[in-house]
Amino acid sequence: MMDTHIVEVINVTREVAWLPWAVQYFFLIGLSVGGLLLSLPGYAFARDGWRPLGRLALIVALTCGLAAPVALLSDLHQPGRFWHFYVVFRPTSWMWWGSLFIPFYIAGLLVYGWACLREELQAHGRVDSRLAGLYRLAALGGGRDDRLIRAAGLFVLAGAALVALYTGVEVAVVKARPLWHTPFLPVQFLTTALAGALGLVLILNRVVGTADRGVEVLGNRLLAAVLAAVMLCGGLWLALSLSGLDAGHAAALDSVAGSEAWRVTAVWAVAATVVPFVIAVARPAGTGLLTGLIAVHSAWMFRWTVFIGGQSVPKTGAGFYEYALPAGPDGLMGIVGTAGLWLFLLILMTALLPVSSTPAAGRPANASGHPGGRLTAAE
Amino acid sequence: MDRSRRNFCLGAGAATVGAATLAAAPADAGAVSASGDAAHRWAMVVDVRKCVGCQACTVACIMENDVPENSFRTIVSTYEVTEQGKAGSYMLPRLCNHCEDPPCIPVCPTGATYQRRDGIVVVDNSVCVGCAYCVQACPYDARFINHETQTADKCTFCVHRVEAGLLPACVETCVGGARIFGDLKDPDSTVSKLVREQNPKVLKPEMGTQPRVFYIGLDPKMQGKVDGTPTLWRPAPHADKEHA
């Protein structure tokens, strides 16, 4: 089109239809799945060395997993009609499948979480306190049962795999948005979710845990590995787009390459991946809070860019749609509200079952053998 | 019924059409069948050479269908195109393409959006949960969330008018006769003849959606995402936040 210049004089702006609520949902459910996966070695597969990290990962899985559906429901413009999902058979829609997978996963997560924490509930039930009866009731008269934990773990692992699959594919099938329509997206969602979950584990280790050095080093090493996978995915996506081997990927890159804002975002995303990677590799001890914060930030930013950034690319019009974060429920309040709900769940969970203090009375006779045994008497 | 407004008024039925127009019911009050008549396949041909960019169709659609402020079921995208030093205007009326293979339908998790047997793609807004998956899936940015109903919304080819034997409001009002509506299953209809004889183009054919809105005189530069300087004017983000 030599010597041709087009100025769009009149066109319509389509506002974002998947709101910041959706960003929060995909962030939280991703972190929950990531947290669950990280908890499995320590609990479902009874690797004692992974128990302390698994304990924090369990908090991530449960708190994020319980807050996520609230964000998802809020993203519906008719949340009161959510039951419409359950009175139809719509196998062509990944969102419909998601409506089945989410309750399956959350139910499994609750059973698994209970099985994992039953030992602690039992221990708290033995302490002479006003809540002891409630703890005993919650423990259902039992303690640690590795077979139950493993069975529940495998069940919820299936749920987590389905959730990871549907959340990725649901977005990747949208052919109308070249930026989304890539087989890399589900993998990128999963790897960044794992990075975010590890980040949150590292933060919780310092904030609600015991600042366990072992957890920090293991967490940072895992984070470095996961961030390497994130960079590999991003690199492959970029290579495929630049090479022009695939028209779809080239179109995706083309749709944003000319934008200064997108270039800044790309540099930011690379920095938020490379910096924690380098720190985690160079100094895995003593840096967990920093790498954790960056990793969580990076996982959130990835989703923000995919959803809000992706929707700012017009499908037919020229240039980009402008997006300004509204202050109300469709914007900032949604983000803050979801974060607040998560914080409430965190406080509730760590108040009822403190990470750092399980009553000595609850320690089983063989507790000295596993690393969860850095327990101190609560009362 | 397969004509532009210009032809329509020249026809013998002009007087009765006028009466019927006056009696036309509001968008959602008429008894519109849910499934349509398979004997028809409604389609539109837009002759962009005849469009003057007056936006009468845009306004007529809003009035006919009670489209909320700052939302549009149809709009005439207007471009200033400078080629080899010469500037000119280019008008492109956009609306739902009522595709033969609509990507908005399989993604719908509740079945609220579906295609009638006459090809018109509709949304049952009493079933729609407002998940906006269809909004994402449409390659033409033809769908939006209606903040009064909080459900997905789009052009319906004025299905309530079509069922009453009337033309869609945008066709009815088009001063240049640029919008021609009719039945592709009727080989003698104007749209059938135009599609047969004029080899009209569709938007984004590579998407494989098989649109049933055809364009005569469509510039290939406008067929997909337009590569140009973004619009100088856009409607403000929806002002009626209290509905949100």
Q: In summary, what is this structure?
A:
Chain B: GO terms for molecular function: 4 iron, 4 sulfur cluster binding; metal ion binding. The complex is a heterodimer of chains A (379) and B (244). Helices cover 65% and strands 2% of the residues of chain A.
Summary keywords:
heterodimer; A: 379 residues; Formate dehydrogenase/DMSO reductase fold; 2 domains; B: 244 residues; alpha+beta; Alpha-Beta Plaits; 3-stranded mixed β-sheet; two-stranded antiparallel sheet; 9 strands; globular; disordered C terminus
Give an account of the 3D structure:
- The complex is a heterodimer of chains A (379) and B (244).
- With 379 residues, chain A is an all-alpha fold.
- Chain A folds into two domains: 15-177 and 330-379, Formate dehydrogenase/DMSO reductase fold (Up-down Bundle), CATH 1.20.1630; 181-310.
- In chain A, 65% of the residues lie in helices and 2% in strands.
- Chain A has helices at residues 20-39, 51-75, 94-125, 132-139, 146-172, 184-207, 213-243, 247-257, 260-282, 288-311, 332-352, and one strand at 4-10.
- The radius of gyration of chain B is 18 Å and the shape is globular.
- Chain B starts with a helix and ends in a 28-residue tail after the last strand.
- Chain B is built from eight helices and nine strands.
- Chain B has helices at 5-10, 14-23, 56-65, 104-107, 133-137, 159-163, 169-173, 190-197, and strands at 42-47, 75-83, 86-94, 113-115, 121-123, 144-146, 151-153, 179-183, 213-216.
- Chain B has a single domain (37-217), classed as Alpha-Beta Plaits.
- In chain B, the strands form four sheets. In chain B, strands 8-1-9 form a three-stranded mixed beta sheet, covered by helices on one side.
- At the A-B interface, strand 1 and helix 3 of A face strand 2, strand 3 and helix 5 of B.
- Strand 1 (4-10) of chain A pairs antiparallel with strand 2 (75-83) of chain B, so a sheet runs across the interface.
- Chain B: Pfam families: Fer4_11 (PF13247).
- Chain B: One of its GO terms (molecular function) is metal ion binding.
- Chain B: Keywords: 4Fe-4S, Iron, Iron-sulfur, Metal-binding, Plasmid, Signal.
- Chain B: Residues 42-71, 119-148 form the 4Fe-4S ferredoxin-type domain.
